[in-house]
Amino acid sequence: MQGLIISNIADQYTIETKEQTIKCMARGKFKKEEISPVVGDLVEIEIVDEAKQEGIITKIQERKNYSKRPKLANITQVILVVSAKMPKPDLLMLDKQLAYAHAQKITPVIVLNKIDLKEVKEIREIYESIGYPIIETNAKTAEGVEELKQKLKNQISAFSGNSGVGKSTLLNQIFQKQLTKQGEISNKNQKGKNTTTAIQLYKIDQNTYIADTPGFSTFDIYEISKEELYEHFIEFVPYENQCAYVGCSHIKEQECGIKQAVEKGDISKQRYQNYSKIYQDLKEKEEHKW
User: Fold this and answer.
1) Which DSSP symbol is given to 183?
2) pLDDT tier at 165 (50, 70, 90 boundaries)?
3) Given this structure, which CATH class describes domain 2-62?
4) What is the Cα–Cα distance from 159 to 216, expressed in whole angstroms?
5) Phi–psi pair at 16, nearest 5 degrees
6) Domains 2-62 and 229-287 equal at CATH topology level
7) Which of 5, 97, 191, 210 is the most exposed place for a label (fewest CB within 10 A)?
8) Strand stretches in 84-226, DSSP E
9) Architecture of domain 67-212
10) Cα(first)–Cα(last) distance of the chain, in Å?
11) Residue 230 in 3-state DSSP?
């Protein structure tokens, strides 16, 4: 029997099959193989107690992609929720997420929530010019929620963003019921307090699922090398062949096509500055790896 893992708490997995929902444990062999089932995995199971609807996961099917943090597999779309009021928009994190999504071949959708700031226009101009889809929402009033629902159809989507940006409120609006506890915002530091404790895959219809994931304030992309980073800033790529030096880092070199494009206004200065910060972070991480 085959099914989809829709939740994982400790060592217990909830598997959705065509006929029923089964509670499963993972077979011990997975520990030897150094692989663990995660939410989003397509798995094969054996029923061990029909009456209690309990079973064992016997095989994990090949994954299309895998995210270490949060632990998710086979995601087709990531909804990147950015707060445009409180907490302050974190565009460095957004650019990390976009690079990671591109590297994982996951389609990104940017959601600007709490749409009552001038910054929204500036953010929209930057990312729409690159080609990223953007939806403006107000989670509390449900503005933009119908447009978001259309984007979710026939996708397995993960919601990502700092705690407090409105992910949980958006999910509750989509389902029209209280699914997740809403995070509180600390006025003192304007950072969200994480309230979601487990990854859960929610079903909207037959082929549509969305995941609410634990909020986090960092997004590590150390699987990407510093040399490959520019490839995942998709608007940089057309200018790479204008660099004078092979292996240009696009940081210190003078005759750099990407830096020239920034100076001409063809590439956002904000995006380039974030690229430089992420590059330096990856460089330091690689230098201290051993």
Assistant:
1) P
2) confident
3) mainly beta
4) 11
5) -100, 120
6) no
7) 191
8) 107-113, 134-137, 156-160, 200-205, 208-212
9) 3-Layer(aba) Sandwich (3.40)
10) 44
11) helix
Nearest C-alpha neighbor of 11 from the set 30, 24, 29, 1: 24
DSSP code of residue 27? -
Write the DSSP symbol of residue 182.
Answer: P
Q: What are the E-state strand segments in 69-155?
A: 72-73, 77-83, 107-113, 134-137
Burial readout 16-49 (b: 16 or more C-beta within 10 A, e: otherwise): beeeeebebebbeeeeeeeeebbbbbbbebeeee
Q: pLDDT, tens digit, for every residue of 109-143? A: 999 987 556 778 889 999 999 999 999 988 788 88
Give the gyration radius of the chain's Cα atoms. 21
CA distance 262 to 259: 5
d(CA 165, CA 84): 8
Single pTM value for the model: 0.83
Q: Residue type at 28?
A: G
- Rounded to the nearest 10°, the torsion over CA 259, 264, 265, 266 is -70
